[in-house]
Structures
1.
Amino acid sequence: MLAKLSPHEAYRRVDFDARVCGANAAELVHLCYEHLVGSLGTAIHAHETGDNALKSRSLTRALTSITALQLGVSGEQGIAEALRQLYESARREVLDSAITFKPDRIANVRRDFEEIGQALRVG
Protein backbone atom coordinates (compact mmCIF):
# COMPACT_ATOMS: atom_id res chain seq x y z
CA MET A 1 0.00 0.00 0.00
CA LEU A 2 2.82 2.45 0.81
CA ALA A 3 4.27 1.83 -2.68
CA LYS A 4 1.36 3.81 -4.18
CA LEU A 5 2.23 6.90 -2.13
CA SER A 6 4.86 9.53 -2.73
CA PRO A 7 7.99 9.08 -0.60
CA HIS A 8 6.98 12.11 1.48
CA GLU A 9 3.49 10.74 2.13
CA ALA A 10 4.82 7.27 2.94
CA TYR A 11 7.28 8.73 5.46
CA ARG A 12 4.56 10.89 7.00
CA ARG A 13 2.33 7.86 7.50
CA VAL A 14 5.08 5.72 9.02
CA ASP A 15 6.07 8.56 11.35
CA PHE A 16 2.45 9.14 12.37
CA ASP A 17 1.83 5.42 13.00
CA ALA A 18 4.98 5.13 15.11
CA ARG A 19 4.02 8.15 17.21
CA VAL A 20 0.49 6.80 17.76
CA CYS A 21 1.72 3.38 18.87
CA GLY A 22 3.97 4.83 21.57
CA ALA A 23 1.65 7.56 22.86
CA ASN A 24 -0.34 7.90 26.05
CA ALA A 25 -3.77 9.59 26.12
CA ALA A 26 -2.45 13.16 26.50
CA GLU A 27 0.10 12.62 23.74
CA LEU A 28 -2.62 11.27 21.44
CA VAL A 29 -4.70 14.42 21.96
CA HIS A 30 -1.66 16.58 21.23
CA LEU A 31 -0.90 14.49 18.14
CA CYS A 32 -4.47 14.98 16.89
CA TYR A 33 -4.18 18.74 17.39
CA GLU A 34 -0.83 18.77 15.60
CA HIS A 35 -2.22 16.68 12.75
CA LEU A 36 -5.29 18.91 12.46
CA VAL A 37 -3.23 22.13 12.38
CA GLY A 38 -0.88 20.67 9.76
CA SER A 39 -3.71 19.36 7.58
CA LEU A 40 -5.54 22.69 7.61
CA GLY A 41 -2.32 24.51 6.75
CA THR A 42 -1.74 22.17 3.83
CA ALA A 43 -5.34 22.67 2.67
CA ILE A 44 -4.85 26.45 2.64
CA HIS A 45 -1.60 26.09 0.71
CA ALA A 46 -3.21 23.68 -1.75
CA HIS A 47 -6.06 26.13 -2.30
CA GLU A 48 -3.60 28.94 -3.01
CA THR A 49 -1.70 26.81 -5.54
CA GLY A 50 -4.83 25.34 -7.14
CA ASP A 51 -4.06 21.74 -6.11
CA ASN A 52 -7.59 20.47 -5.53
CA ALA A 53 -6.52 16.85 -4.96
CA LEU A 54 -4.14 17.85 -2.16
CA LYS A 55 -6.76 20.20 -0.71
CA SER A 56 -9.30 17.38 -0.61
CA ARG A 57 -6.85 14.93 1.01
CA SER A 58 -5.89 17.55 3.56
CA LEU A 59 -9.49 18.31 4.49
CA THR A 60 -10.13 14.58 4.83
CA ARG A 61 -7.13 14.26 7.18
CA ALA A 62 -8.42 17.23 9.17
CA LEU A 63 -11.82 15.56 9.53
CA THR A 64 -10.11 12.35 10.67
CA SER A 65 -8.32 14.30 13.41
CA ILE A 66 -11.52 16.02 14.50
CA THR A 67 -13.37 12.70 14.58
CA ALA A 68 -10.64 11.14 16.74
CA LEU A 69 -10.84 14.10 19.11
CA GLN A 70 -14.63 13.84 19.26
CA LEU A 71 -14.46 10.13 20.03
CA GLY A 72 -12.01 10.77 22.85
CA VAL A 73 -14.27 13.11 24.82
CA SER A 74 -15.80 11.46 27.87
CA GLY A 75 -18.32 12.82 30.31
CA GLU A 76 -21.35 14.98 29.77
CA GLN A 77 -20.72 18.25 31.59
CA GLY A 78 -18.16 21.00 32.01
CA ILE A 79 -15.13 20.78 29.78
CA ALA A 80 -16.52 17.75 27.93
CA GLU A 81 -19.49 19.76 26.65
CA ALA A 82 -17.24 22.68 25.68
CA LEU A 83 -14.92 20.32 23.78
CA ARG A 84 -17.85 18.72 21.96
CA GLN A 85 -19.04 22.16 20.85
CA LEU A 86 -15.54 23.18 19.74
CA TYR A 87 -14.98 19.98 17.77
CA GLU A 88 -18.44 20.08 16.18
CA SER A 89 -17.93 23.70 15.12
CA ALA A 90 -14.56 22.83 13.59
CA ARG A 91 -16.09 19.82 11.83
CA ARG A 92 -18.83 22.00 10.30
CA GLU A 93 -16.28 24.56 9.06
CA VAL A 94 -14.17 21.85 7.42
CA LEU A 95 -17.19 20.16 5.84
CA ASP A 96 -18.50 23.51 4.56
CA SER A 97 -15.08 24.23 3.05
CA ALA A 98 -15.12 20.93 1.22
CA ILE A 99 -17.97 22.37 -0.84
CA THR A 100 -16.94 26.03 -1.00
CA PHE A 101 -13.44 26.57 0.34
CA LYS A 102 -13.22 29.49 2.75
CA PRO A 103 -9.52 30.07 3.47
CA ASP A 104 -10.12 32.75 6.12
CA ARG A 105 -12.44 30.53 8.13
CA ILE A 106 -10.13 27.53 7.83
CA ALA A 107 -7.23 29.76 8.91
CA ASN A 108 -9.25 30.80 11.99
CA VAL A 109 -9.95 27.17 12.92
CA ARG A 110 -6.29 26.37 12.37
CA ARG A 111 -5.17 29.26 14.56
CA ASP A 112 -7.59 28.27 17.34
CA PHE A 113 -6.31 24.70 17.45
CA GLU A 114 -2.71 25.84 17.16
CA GLU A 115 -3.17 28.07 20.23
CA ILE A 116 -4.92 25.33 22.20
CA GLY A 117 -2.20 22.86 21.23
CA GLN A 118 0.51 25.25 22.42
CA ALA A 119 -1.33 25.78 25.70
CA LEU A 120 -1.55 22.02 26.21
CA ARG A 121 2.20 21.68 25.71
CA VAL A 122 2.95 24.39 28.26
CA GLY A 123 0.45 23.08 30.80
2.
Amino acid sequence: MDERREAVAVKSRGNAKERVGLVISTAMDKTITVAVMRLVEHPLYKKTSKQTTKFKAHDAENACGVGDLVRIRETRPLSKTKRWRLVEIVKRAE
Protein backbone atom coordinates (compact mmCIF):
# COMPACT_ATOMS: atom_id res chain seq x y z
CA MET A 1 0.00 0.00 0.00
CA ASP A 2 2.82 2.43 0.86
CA GLU A 3 4.56 1.70 -2.45
CA ARG A 4 1.47 2.73 -4.38
CA ARG A 5 1.25 6.07 -2.54
CA GLU A 6 4.94 6.70 -3.12
CA ALA A 7 4.61 5.97 -6.85
CA VAL A 8 1.72 8.44 -7.16
CA ALA A 9 3.71 11.12 -5.32
CA VAL A 10 6.66 10.69 -7.68
CA LYS A 11 4.42 10.94 -10.77
CA SER A 12 2.86 14.21 -9.57
CA ARG A 13 6.27 15.94 -9.52
CA GLY A 14 6.44 16.16 -13.29
CA ASN A 15 7.33 19.85 -13.48
CA ALA A 16 10.56 19.69 -11.46
CA LYS A 17 13.62 20.74 -13.47
CA GLU A 18 16.54 18.35 -13.77
CA ARG A 19 20.13 19.21 -14.63
CA VAL A 20 23.30 17.19 -15.19
CA GLY A 21 26.54 18.71 -13.99
CA LEU A 22 29.97 18.23 -12.49
CA VAL A 23 30.61 18.27 -8.73
CA ILE A 24 33.16 21.01 -8.01
CA SER A 25 33.01 21.09 -4.19
CA THR A 26 32.10 18.79 -1.31
CA ALA A 27 33.41 21.02 1.49
CA MET A 28 30.05 21.34 3.28
CA ASP A 29 28.29 18.57 5.21
CA LYS A 30 25.50 16.92 3.15
CA THR A 31 25.89 19.58 0.44
CA ILE A 32 27.58 19.54 -2.93
CA THR A 33 28.24 22.36 -5.38
CA VAL A 34 27.41 21.37 -8.94
CA ALA A 35 28.56 23.30 -12.03
CA VAL A 36 26.14 23.04 -14.94
CA MET A 37 27.49 24.15 -18.32
CA ARG A 38 25.33 25.31 -21.22
CA LEU A 39 25.97 26.73 -24.68
CA VAL A 40 24.55 30.17 -25.42
CA GLU A 41 24.42 31.74 -28.86
CA HIS A 42 25.00 35.48 -29.16
CA PRO A 43 21.83 37.07 -30.56
CA LEU A 44 23.57 39.29 -33.12
CA TYR A 45 26.90 37.62 -33.94
CA LYS A 46 25.71 33.98 -33.60
CA LYS A 47 28.90 32.88 -31.84
CA THR A 48 28.31 30.20 -29.22
CA SER A 49 29.98 30.49 -25.84
CA LYS A 50 29.96 28.35 -22.71
CA GLN A 51 28.20 29.60 -19.59
CA THR A 52 28.51 27.90 -16.22
CA THR A 53 25.96 28.09 -13.41
CA LYS A 54 26.67 26.78 -9.92
CA PHE A 55 23.95 25.08 -7.88
CA LYS A 56 24.06 23.85 -4.28
CA ALA A 57 22.40 20.43 -3.93
CA HIS A 58 21.50 18.22 -0.98
CA ASP A 59 23.55 14.99 -0.76
CA ALA A 60 22.10 13.12 2.24
CA GLU A 61 24.71 10.34 2.37
CA ASN A 62 27.77 12.42 1.38
CA ALA A 63 28.18 9.94 -1.48
CA CYS A 64 29.63 12.32 -4.08
CA GLY A 65 33.22 13.27 -4.68
CA VAL A 66 34.81 16.10 -6.61
CA GLY A 67 34.71 15.36 -10.34
CA ASP A 68 31.61 13.14 -10.29
CA LEU A 69 28.97 13.68 -12.96
CA VAL A 70 25.58 13.93 -11.21
CA ARG A 71 21.89 14.50 -11.94
CA ILE A 72 20.10 16.98 -9.66
CA ARG A 73 16.39 17.86 -9.37
CA GLU A 74 14.74 21.08 -8.26
CA THR A 75 13.03 20.88 -4.85
CA ARG A 76 11.63 23.05 -2.08
CA PRO A 77 14.09 25.39 -0.32
CA LEU A 78 16.26 23.32 2.02
CA SER A 79 18.39 26.25 3.24
CA LYS A 80 19.22 29.81 2.24
CA THR A 81 21.01 28.74 -0.96
CA LYS A 82 20.09 25.06 -1.38
CA ARG A 83 17.18 24.43 -3.77
CA TRP A 84 18.30 21.21 -5.49
CA ARG A 85 18.52 17.55 -4.47
CA LEU A 86 20.83 14.81 -5.73
CA VAL A 87 18.98 12.24 -7.85
CA GLU A 88 21.81 9.98 -9.00
CA ILE A 89 25.51 9.78 -9.66
CA VAL A 90 25.76 9.33 -13.43
CA LYS A 91 29.53 8.74 -13.55
CA ARG A 92 32.17 8.52 -10.84
CA ALA A 93 35.42 10.46 -11.07
CA GLU A 94 38.48 8.42 -11.93
